[in-house]
Amino acid sequence: MNATRLAIPDVILFEPRIFGDERGFFFESFNQARFDEAVGRSVTFVQDNHSRSVRNVLRGLHYQIQQPQGKLVRVAVGEVFDVAVDLRRSSPTFGKWVGAILSAENKKQLWVPEGFGHGFVVLSDVAEFLYKTTDYYAPQHERCIIWNDPTLAIEWPIQGEPVLSAKDMKGTAFLQADVFA
Ligand SMILES: Cc1cn([C@H]2C[C@H](O)[C@@H](COP(=O)(O)OP(=O)(O)O[C@H]3O[C@@H](C)C(=O)[C@@H](O)[C@H]3O)O2)c(=O)[nH]c1=O
To answer: One of this protein's Pfam families, by short name (predicted)?
Structure first.
């Protein structure tokens, strides 16, 4: 497993070692000891999520202002562009974003720590998105920043308008959003 810190160093891209043979493939999709070593601390996950979306669906930018969730995300079907936005005011990279292509083919995983907004857009006909979270879903603490916020200026690799949930259409501007200390 290869672990690479991105331009926001707390965000880590994992590339698992794939064992292919005539039957298909095998890889460790999660290894607690290796994960903790790469992150540099002990991380506990409490929830696993799985969503399916069609092309151009954009989910995000989501976070929980209390009970913040670290997320280890991956794609089992299709391809997405996945984004993490640093929402920690005290961070040197506050308001910056990083993105990565995650796909069933490349099997990459992104570690999006607590204190980040998270979202993705689907680049294939369908995508199945799997992720582990470090805290439970708490809708009362859920916040959404609008995907196309001009201050964040995320370069989503799509043409035209994405497909959004009613909730995500009403996302807040970054400059008005609740953020972390
Ligand atoms: C996220 C979540 C949703 N739900 C329910 C609430 C709702 O009825 C339905 C769909 O929820 P949403 O529209 O919020 O799902 P979705 O837009 O996929 O939300 C997810 O987006 C990505 C980008 C993230 O980062 C996740 O943390 C999460 O916020 O599922 C749960 O029961 N548990 C959960 O953990």
So the answer is: dTDP_sugar_isom
pLDDT above 90 (res 1): no
What's the rounded Cα separation, in Å, for the pair 127 and 54?
A: 6
Q: How far apart are CA 12 and CA 40, in angstroms?
A: 11
- Whose Cα sits closest to atom 4 in ligand 1? 137
Mean pLDDT across 91-105: 98
Nearest CA residue ID for atom 33, ligand 1: 137
Burial of residue 176, with CB atoms counted within 10 A of its CB: 0-12 exposed, 13-18 middle, 19 or more buried:
exposed
In a domain, 126, yes or no: yes
Closest residue by Cα to residue 8 from 102, 109, 101, 98:
98
- Look up residue 47 and give its two tokens: 């929830």
Q: Is the pTM of this model over 0.80?
A: yes
Cα 128 to ligand 1 centroid, rounded to whole Å: 14
CATH label of the domain that carries residue 67: 2.60.120.10
In a domain, 75, yes or no: yes
181 in any annotated domain: no
- Segments forming the whole domain that contains residue 76: 2-176
20 CA distance to ligand 1 middle (Å):
33
**Number of domains within the chain:** 1
